[in-house]
Amino acid sequence: MPDFEAPLYERLVRRLERGPSSFHVPGHQYGRALPDKPYALFKDIMGIDVTELDDTDDLHDPTGVIRDAQRLAARCFGADETFFLVGGSTAGNLALLLAVLDPGDMIIVQRNVHKSVLNGIALAKARAIFVAPQLEPVTGLPTVPAPSDIEAALERYPEAKAVFLCTPNYYGMHVHLAPYAEMAHRRKVPLLVDEAHGAHFGLHPDCPPSAMQSGADAAVQSTHKTLTALTMGAMLHVRRGRVPMERLRRALSAVQSSSPSFPVLASLDIARAMIEAYGPAWLEPGLKAARLVRERLARRGGPFAVVEPAVCEACAAVDPMRIVLKDGTGTLGGVRLQQLLNARGLWAEMADDRHVVFVFGPRAAEADAEKLADALDRIAEEAGLAAAPEAGREGEAATHAAAGRPGAEAWSAAFREERIGEPITVPLMPPAEDATEIIPLEDAAGRTAAEAIVPYPPGIPLILAGERISGPRIAAIRRLAAAGVRFQGAADPEVRRIRVMRIHQG
């Protein structure tokens, strides 16, 4: 058994073993307030669900075991300082932006970022300079802006206070970050990265390098997504120098609960401990399970194919623990395929109109991988699907053409109308209702949106309140809605109608 060091978790276990009497919150008193049946499973974790006591430390002013656990995490992930987050990567993104921006400041940010980044800019009362992403040529899906476009934005707006990027994307497509870090540092501004889906990057030779390894000044990782922390457990890794640390600490205290979950904190400590105890071997089962599915699908040559993005500037690497699957015949859309898998007890991470995305955790089981492959065989047989006429990258393009639609281009066009936008204020709250009206979506071209339209997942706003609604955006909404994709923020859940600003008659 390798050495296992998790100071926060170990402290919580030791105090529970001493049989303490609770005269403090939380009210369940180590789970003793609940009967064993039917709550035994839940009671187990309540034993370490405590509050800030003399021996448990304070997340917002750590001087004991939380400080020790965060220092171990910083060492493990290559940061000068690491902060534990109990509000997911959302909390880290909000805090970072509040730390580096003052009201009226400008920040260069890729347009296809998570909504938490936009909320952070809005809370800071700053202005966003949106830069359009590149398109991965096989799928047409957006990734990260080209380095030349970020360079041009920095030249056009030298007063910008930071560059904010998001990689890898929900489909596992990643770009090399070192060039972006170098150009930001030449202008003495920080490179901030939402790396929510890449907590495992840099931990195995088969995985791409992490943002911190690539020179980023700060990176937010959802440790719960691809490592083993509890949901909402995330980490913010920071390199000192370009990020104001005292402002960051104060921002974290402002956006995170004053009563953080100790089970979530302990799970972050454990996630890091397992990595350090086992090294790259900790990820081997997940990598092997993902390989098994890829190899079996390729060997059988059926209708379902793993999408293999092109290696290029827009996608320099792909997450090996994430599989993007499509029906190469164009018969089953992604949402429908996901539903068929759900009915068999197989739950994917997300789906769009064409793809289903599967995330393999670090300890994913081969038996589950075999179950997935078997289920895909049965679905193909029941649906009468023959082998895809073409495979690989050409097959993806052929599928788009056969379906008479431009693949993900409709989605991507929403972000590509301007390579580099003018500085805009991102609204935090919607406008007053009496200043808006709800109209049919097909009549909205040219109007100003009064609500955000957010396909979820992935949580990237397709339209922001205050943005002009264009034909390509309308086409993307229709396509996604027709496929069964859910939307957040829309007054009409089916997005047949949309809220826009009234046109004032002079």
The named CATH superfamily of the largest domain: Type I PLP-dependent aspartate aminotransferase-like (Major domain)
CATH architecture of the largest domain: 3-Layer(aba) Sandwich
Give the overall shape.
globular
What would the average pLDDT be, to the nearest integer? 92
Q: How large is the radius of gyration? A: 24 Å
Major beta sheet, specifics? 8 strands, mixed
State which percent range the strand residues make up. 5-15%
- CATH class placement of the largest domain: Alpha Beta
Number of helices: 16
Number of domains: 4
User: Helical percent range?
Assistant: 25-40%
Could you name the ranges where pLDDT drops below 50 across 5 or more consecutive residues? 391-407
Summing up helix and strand content along with how strands pair, one would put the structural category as: alpha+beta
Q: How far apart are the first and last residues' alpha carbons, in Å? A: 77 Å
Number of DSSP-assigned strands: 18
Strand order of the largest sheet: 1-8-7-6-4-2-3-14
State the CATH topology of the largest domain.
Aspartate Aminotransferase, domain 2
Your description of this structure?
The chain has 506 residues and is an alpha+beta fold. The protein folds into 4 domains: 1-56, no CATH class; 66-280, Aspartate Aminotransferase, domain 2 (3-Layer(aba) Sandwich); 283-409, Aspartate Aminotransferase, domain 1, CATH 3.90.1150; 429-501, Alpha-Beta Complex (Ornithine Decarboxylase, Chain A, domain 4). The chain is 35% helix and 13% strand. The chain is built from 16 helices and 18 strands. An 8-stranded mixed sheet has the order 1-8-7-6-4-2-3-14, sandwiched between helices. Helix 1 (7-17) crosses helix 10 and helix 4 (88-100) packs across helix 9. The model is unreliable at 391-407 (pLDDT under 50).
